[in-house]
UniProtKB/TrEMBL annotation:
Protein name: Phosphotransferase
Record-linked SUPFAM superfamilies: Protein kinase-like (PK-like) (SSF56112)
InterPro entries noted in UniProt: Aminoglycoside_PTrfase (IPR002575), Kinase-like_dom_sf (IPR011009)
Keywords: Transferase
Organism encoding this protein: Microbacterium oleivorans
Length: 370
């Protein structure tokens, strides 16, 4: 058995309250139950409560979920949601991405408000229970549909605010309270177009963001409770790493300046144009906090993704050249928390070697400095 298979077998034994847990986290097992091959894209797991898996299949994008009781499965199976029972697994349902239990109401709302908006649209990403990202037919625009309406910062107003102070962003058009459209732009993000010049420009753009006026509804982006939650998520799937995760959570930096921050900054949040221009995207977690957290998050993600990346230095130089207030000590102080916050992602992405990648992420937090 592979390390991932061993970890999943142990997880299934520890959590018998979620029926079919091992099946939904194993592409081969889930495909056998559904009667067709699947490729797992992303999972959400709540210990003793539920597991939701988004997958690709020959029939298109889909999802499957298992719950600790019948109520949520029953709600997912009502006629207008069109989810079907998973054969042989109690309290488990499956359906197309559009029937995701949390997202189906938002999709129906969009269909009523903008009939035909998504006709021929291509699904790009499905974060089960959270959001769908689709490319409109013809490729001219991207539509994001979320399970919950923005309760703080509407994307269209935020785009205007940031653009007005020189932050390179894309305009956003409201379709409904839970759906937004932005133009398709660029040649790809900084992970697929890793230009040092673009990284330098991204650093300058980040400096502009950190100088932006604080939106009235902005909230702190992180705190000790977030670090504790990240450590708990690691302990749930790999209990042998629990003490290391808890030790990183205890290293939450205190104090520091409060600025507008991206909250989830990494190379895939930077679009790169054919001329080298950049646009910052995905401000779902924008709020207030220490700006060095954004820089540390970018550096940690690059370290985890590539081991070493020239983009880190270029981003920092661009930030400095644009007048960003760089604090090397605070940047290093945020590395443990940024690594911990990202450590569960290999599990959620269903990476084949996710146990080793989780361990590697914790090691970055324990001993690496940019």
């Amino acid at each position: 058995m592979t390390p991932a298979a061993i970890a999943l077998a142990r997880l299934r034994e520890r959590d018998p309250r979620v029926p079919g847990l091992g099946t939904l986290l194993d592409a081969d097992a889930l495909g056998a139950v559904l009667g067709h091959p699947v490729h797992l894209r992303r999972v959400r797991y709540k210990p003793a409560t539920s597991v939701i898996a988004a997958f690709d299949s020959p029939h298109g994008a889909g999802w499957a979920a298992a719950y600790d009781g019948p109520d949520k499965a029953r709600v997912s199976s009502v006629p207008h949601r069109r989810a079907d029972p998973v054969p042989g697994i109690a309290h488990a349902v499956t359906g197309t991405a559009r029937t995701d239990r949390a997202l189906a109401p938002a999709m129906r709302e969009l269909d009523r408000a903008r009939p035909g908006e998504l006709t021929g649209a291509q699904l790009l990403r499905h974060n089960p229970g959270r959001r769908l990202v689709l490319a409109e037919a013809g490729g001219g625009a991207i539509v994001k549909v979320v399970a919950r309406a923005a309760d703080r910062l509407r994307p269209d107003a935020l785009a205007v605010l940031l653009s007005d102070v020189g932050v390179p962003v894309l305009p956003a058009e409201r379709l409904t309270d839970r759906a937004w459209r932005a133009p398709y732009w660029g040649e790809g993000d900084l992970t697929v177009a890793p230009s040092p010049d673009a990284a330098f420009r991204a650093g300058a753009a980040l400096a502009a963001l950190h100088r932006a006026p604080t939106p009235v509804a902005a909230r702190p982006v992180t705190g000790p409770s977030d670090a504790a939650a990240a450590a708990t998520a690691i302990a749930a799937v790999l209990p042998e790493l629990a003490s290391r995760a808890a030790a990183l959570a205890a290293r939450h930096p205190a104090g520091g300046p409060e600025r507008v921050v991206h909250g989830d900054f990494s190379a895939d949040q930077v679009l790169v144009g054919a001329d080298g221009e950049v646009r910052l995207i995905d401000f779902d977690r924008l709020g207030t906090g220490d700006p060095m957290r954004d820089l540390a998050g970018f550096a940690v993600e690059e370290r985890m993704r590539l081991g070493a990346s020239p983009l880190i230095g270029e981003l920092i130089e661009g930030y400095r050249a644009a007048g960003g207030e760089l604090d090397d000590a605070r940047l290093r102080a945020w590395v443990p928390l940024c690594a911990l916050g990202r450590a569960i992602e290999p599990f959620r992405r269903c990476d084949p070697d996710w146990p080793a990648l989780v361990d590697r992420a914790l090691a970055v937090g324990e001993g690496w400095t940019p």
